[in-house]
Amino acid sequence: MIDNYKSTKERDLASKARVSAGQKKRDKREAAKSLKAQYKERLQGANSTSERRDAKEQFQSDLMDIDTGLESNRSGTGSTVQDDGVDNVDSTEDSGGGGGGGGTFELDVVKDDNTAGRALFTGDGII
User: Fold this and answer.
1) How far is CA 54 from CA 5, 49, 51, 60, 73, in A?
2) d(CA 51, CA 47)
3) Measured on CA atoms in the order 30, 14, 68, 88, is the torsion positive or negative?
């Protein structure tokens, strides 16, 4: 059996990767169990069907966040990027930013008669 430094190092890295992946799975399962317990508790305290529906929607959304590993989106209106749909991007440039600068630009378009065409635009463009 040949056992050199490189193979030992590779085995060590592979082992650490497996341990890390296993820990992530365990953490996800633990978070899902905790979330389910909170959901059941919230259902027991619900006084109406709409409260139960809201609890279920929130539970499913939170569970999906755990499954997909989504981070909190603190700058948006929703609690996650998935809730917001599209992130808001603020430009810090004072002038000439975005897609224009006062020039002209062309777009390929489909005309009303379903033929290809080209539209020419002038101005600031798309920001």
Assistant:
1) 57, 9, 5, 10, 21
2) 7
3) positive
Whether 109 and 117 have beta carbons less than 8 Å apart is answered as yes
pLDDT in tens, 59-112: 999 988 887 875 554 455 555 555 555 444 444 444 444 444 567 777 788 888
Whether residue 106 contacts residue 119, with contact meaning beta carbons closer than 8 Å, is answered with yes
Cα–Cα distance measured from residue 116 to residue 118, given in angstroms and rounded to the nearest whole number: 7
Sign of CA dihedral 66, 72, 78, 81: negative
For residue 16 the two structure tokens come to 């650490």
- Tokens in use for 105? 């630009």
